[in-house]
Amino acid sequence: MSEGVIAFQNHLAERTRRRRIKAVVLAGGKGTRLAPYTSVLPKPLMPIGDRSILELVIGQLAGCGITDVTLCVGYLSHLIEAVLANGRTDGVKITYVHEQEALGTAGPLRLVDGLDTTFVAMNGDVLTTLHYADLIRHHRRSHNLLTIATYERSIRIEYGVLYLAENGRSRVQAYVEKPQMTSTVSMGIYVLEPEALAYIPPTGHFDFPDLVQALLQSGEPVGAYRYDGLWFDIGRRDDYEQAVSAWLEQASRTTAPPAPVETVRERSH
């Protein structure tokens, strides 16, 4: 390993020891797949028991020692501000960044001030029992510029799938009825170093897949954190209803959270 790489790794470790980690929560989307619910309510405010998804997310971040949160808002942002102004935010300092146009999932990061150390960026509609402190520990120890929280997701194909020969004769070699396919998918939760922001263009729409591709093309370290606990993509009505049921069921079986982020210390390298 070159001296330059070692010096950079030591720099990251020292910087993240001295400063509190911030979180950026992306809460500006319209949630069209959850219509008609989201016609009157932004998706991050969908209720889970007596709290909204967004309130649960903020509470989880606070439980891991992340108490400085920026919300990137757009669609029905006044409702988000009203709910958080009158609700429980667990002592978290909340700052709002208003998107005047759709900027994608990574584009809004260029509007956020103060991202000068390791930070978390995540979708505002993620319902998971993932411990953010564990994710951040993994990111630090792996010395990634960007770490993606991932999940093994099984998807059932609702049709009989044919496997054909490649000799041009359309011969059937196999037939599988409604198979399940398992893929490693992004949970919509990321940990980044501020150096990654240089790969986001100054204007226009830019998503996290675009950022990942830009980093990979430049040879920057991008890592994955595998998680096998509870996670729901609140994208469709069926998913939402299943998530509500599962979340309330596990609420009575909560365990003590891991050490807060600010107590984590890196090993010397």
The gist of it:
By secondary structure, the protein is an alpha/beta fold.
Draw up the topology in text.
Elements lengths: L2 H16 L3 E6 L19 E2 L2 E2 H11 L4 E6 L3 H10 L6 E6 L20 E5 L2 E3 L3 H11 L3 E11 L3 E5 L7 E6 L2 E13 L15 H10 L4 E5 L4 E3 L3 H14 L19
Parallel strand pairs: 1-4, 1-6, 4-5, 8-12
Antiparallel strand pairs: 2-3, 6-11, 7-13, 8-11, 9-10
Named at the architecture level, the CATH assignment is Alpha-Beta Complex
Number of helices: 6
- Helix and strand content put the structural class at alpha/beta
Q: Give, in spatial order, the strands making up the sheet with the most strands.
A: 5-4-1-6-11-8-12
What sequence of helices (H) and strands (E) makes up the elements?
HEEEHEHEEEHEEEEHEEH
What name is given to the CATH topology?
Answer: Spore Coat Polysaccharide Biosynthesis Protein SpsA, Chain A
The average pLDDT value, as a whole number, equals 83
CATH level-four homologous superfamily name: Spore Coat Polysaccharide Biosynthesis Protein SpsA, Chain A
Please report the distance between the alpha carbons of the first and last residues.
11 Å
How many domains would you count in the coordinates? 1
Could you name the CATH class? Answer: Alpha Beta
**Count of extended strands:** 13
